[in-house]
Design goal:
Length: about 120
């Protein structure tokens, strides 16, 4: 049975092993071109998350709240364009979650400084 000290040493060793790694992704074809998306959807399968990034016409995005507010009938389905589908394993999804969290936190801090 591991002692408390051994457990702390193991945790410290794990923390020291997690060093940031410089990563450079080399484009293939036109893969370095940004893809604009204004809507996304996440679907899961065992061990994989599929993130679909899509595009809806801006006129549609502004019209929907107006129609709903006026009590009009909303469409049952909206057609948009699939911009890109990304499949992520659990580890990559966790990394994306952490990175997005850091970006949002930085944005919130910057917004507070502006006010």
């Amino acid at each position: 049975m591991a002692t408390k000290k051994e457990g702390e040493q193991a945790a410290a060793q794990t923390d020291t092993e997690r060093k940031p790694l410089g990563l450079r992704l080399v484009p293939v074809g036109n893969s370095d071109q940004p893809v604009f998306s204004n809507v996304c959807s996440v679907n899961v399968a065992p061990g994989v998350a599929f993130i679909d990034f899509g595009f809806l016409e801006p006129a549609m995005l502004t019209a929907l709240p107006r129609v709903a507010k006026q009590g009009g009938k909303l469409p049952e389905r909206i057609e948009g364009r699939l911009a890109v589908r990304v499949a992520l394993g659990v580890e990559a999804l966790a990394s994306l979650h952490q990175q997005i969290g850091r970006v949002l936190a930085a944005g919130q801090r910057a917004a507070k400084k502006e006010t």
